Amino acid sequence: MNENNNHGNQSGDGSINVGNGDFRGAKLNINNSNNKLFTIDELNITRHPSLGGFTAKIESINVFGLITGVASLIGLYLTLFPLGGVKTYASWSGLFLFLLALSIISILLSVSLKRKKFENFLSRKIYAELDSSNKVHFNRIRAICPFCQTKMNLYTVGAKGGPYKDMLICERNPSQHRVLLDPTLLPEID
Questions:
Q1: Beta carbons of 152 and 166 less than 8 angstroms apart
Q2: Rounded to an integer, what distance in angstroms lies between the CA atom of residue 17 and that of residue 23?
Q3: Which are the contacts of 184, defined by CB distance < 8 A and separation ≥ 6?
Q4: What angle do the packed helices 58-80 and 92-116 form, to 10 degrees?
Q5: CB under 8 Å to 96, separation ≥6 — which residues?
Q6: Is 103 helix (H, G, I), strand (E, B) or coil?
Q7: Distances, alpha carbon 21 to alpha carbons 2, 7, 9, 28, in Å
Q8: Measured between alpha carbons, how far is 123 from 156 in angstroms, rounded to an integer?
Q9: What distance in Å separates the CA atoms of residue 50 and residue 134, rounded to the nearest whole number?
Q10: Which class for 39: exposed (0-12), middle (13-18), buried (19 or more C-beta within 10 A)?
Q11: What digits encode the pLDDT tens for the residues 127-175?
Q12: CA distances from 177 to 44, 93, 115 (A)
């Protein structure tokens, strides 16, 4: 016969059912959903300028996207269908495709920022933010972990294809120390 009696709860109330072992006095954390709410001050959230502190008016980004898009489409057309039999180099088409992609990104970014004022930009670590004077700032967002007092970085996380969430993730314990960020609560950019 087994000497270790099971002192656990065997009912189906969401508890852990243990076949053998004694967990009296132990603390198990099965679902660390961290539903605790923190204020911006408790998290000590700071912005760190990225891309060399580059800022631009949102109208300038929109105009840049439109002009670059039109120029790249004209360039692509002339590369693929030369006028008057003048041969052009096909290697230019790669540049024009790159410029077209850049223009689409610029236009989509300006449209999204006008609506949301906060959008992830590069590698889901840099965020574009729109201030009250319609200037776009590119920042990294950092905080102090409320659980262990180490650094936290803001990332956009989620399954491939979405939905994505803006989440502050601890450097020391990234799997458990996570805080969902509501970007509408961030203070205005100075």
A1: no
A2: 11
A3: 118
A4: 150
A5: 72, 73, 75, 76, 79
A6: helix
A7: 10, 8, 12, 14
A8: 9
A9: 18
A10: exposed
A11: 889 988 989 999 898 999 998 999 999 988 888 887 888 899 999 999 8
A12: 15, 47, 30
User: Cα(135)–Cα(129) distance, rounded to whole angstroms?
Assistant: 8
154 vs 157: CA distance, rounded Å? 9
Q: State the alpha helices, DSSP H only, in 117-186.
A: none
pLDDT score of 26: 55
**134 within 8 A of 57, measured Cβ to Cβ:** yes
Burial class (CB in 10 A: 0-12, 13-18, 19+), 141: buried
Can you give the pLDDT at residue 150? 93
Return the SS3 of 55. Answer: strand
User: What's the gap between Cα 92 and its chain centre?
Assistant: 33
Mean pLDDT is lowest, of 25-29, 49-53, 104-108, for 25-29
Separation of alpha carbons 187 and 40, rounded Å? 9
* Pick from 131, 146, 157, 125: nearest CA to 39: 146
Residue 135 identity? K
Convert the pLDDT of each residue in 68-86 to its tens digit.
999 988 888 877 777 766 6
As given in the structure block, the two tokens for residue 152 are 């936290």
